[in-house]
Amino acid sequence: MRIALLGGTGDIGEGLAVRWGRDTAHELLIGSRDPERAREAADAYRETVADHGGDADIAGYDNTMAADRADVAVLAVPPYHVVDTVEAVADGLDEGDVLVTPASGMSRDEDGFSYNPPGVGSVAALVRDATPDAVPVVGAFHNLAAGRLADLGTELGIDTLVFGDDDDAVDSITQLAEEIEGLRALHVGGLGAAPEVESLTPLLINVAQQNEGLHDLGVRFH
Amino acid sequence: MRIALLGGTGDIGEGLAVRWGRDTAHELLIGSRDPERAREAADAYRETVADHGGDADIAGYDNTMAADRADVAVLAVPPYHVVDTVEAVADGLDEGDVLVTPASGMSRDEDGFSYNPPGVGSVAALVRDATPDAVPVVGAFHNLAAGRLADLGTELGIDTLVFGDDDDAVDSITQLAEEIEGLRALHVGGLGAAPEVESLTPLLINVAQQNEGLHDLGVRFH
What we know:
The structure is a homodimer.
Chain A: E1 2-6, H1 11-23, E2 27-32, H2 35-51, E3 57-62, H3 63-69, E4 72-75, H4 82-89, E5 98-101, E6 106-109, E7 112-115, H5 123-130, E8 137-139, H6 146-150, E9 158-164, H7 167-178, E10 183-189, H8 194-210, E11 219-221
Parallel strand pairs in A: 1-2, 1-4, 2-3, 4-5, 5-8, 9-10
Antiparallel strand pairs in A: 6-7, 8-9
Helix pairs in contact in A: 1-2, 4-5
């Protein structure tokens, strides 16, 4: 499968790239607005995987070309770049492709982080509204601490929550998630489940900041 | 310490009563609007603890008397009874007492459960507004599956999140929580952190319903 990581030069993009690069044979397309930066990141990720004994198929492109070539595109961009990124790549998304949103909307004050969704109710709803109808949107990969994901020396042992209105797309992303060693994918419902999942992101940051010895936190349901 | 479980004939009250009853020497006051039901529940909980080799100090009262005698009162009532319960017991809460809210507001449709907080933003904020200013409000014990809590044969191995604006009160409830075997208490901030914590409750229910082999779910941050 060909997986595009749009905004893949950022930390969550790096984490997913090196994990899939080490643990699977998928072709990984790092996207950026600046294709030169994407190529540099792809080289670095390939080297990281090689340092851990893997041989990853990773290359860099501009976001539009990465999305055009991919079967699955992950929106690994900050929430305030979600809409412009989707608009930039929409023409390259074909029927049958799947768009994945891992972002949460947050605000911060002296008490810590809070969930601060866009007016449509969630980042996932924002993505859904901006995406062509024929392309299913799936939420996944929230709540993975990027630093831990990118450190291939760390075992994960955590869960990711997958949601969406298209069952086939949800199953396909669930499978991709579980191909990452130590990551368990759990279903949580349709796109209407987005606010509760996206709310976990600020919660994890607050818990990590307020309790000694906890950092790069993930979550396990049991 | 004397701990009142207001609405303690319900499932979360039962779980906390038998756990504290087995694992600590605290005096437990089961509250109900009907003191006869409270006494019956107290007898049953005492018997459960005895079946597991413990000797618990548990008695039944009406909610008002339970709160009046207690140092800590847990609002183990459904969210739509939070305000009337607080109003019924307010006169019995003294300065230095702590009121604990474990409830979440939820709605349900064909897609599952969603977080549906009251207009003031969270159940905890609703409790804060209804409670005398001198009595600190602490959120805790959300996200403990009641059935698992009440089953003393089950090891917990899960976390509870504690939040509130009064540091001493938060510390006191943190300590009470950690006296339950297998329960770890983590800080998450002030009362402003309530929505993200209360949101976990519907999320856990949805995850349990949609994934085979998962039920009575708790959560572990790591």
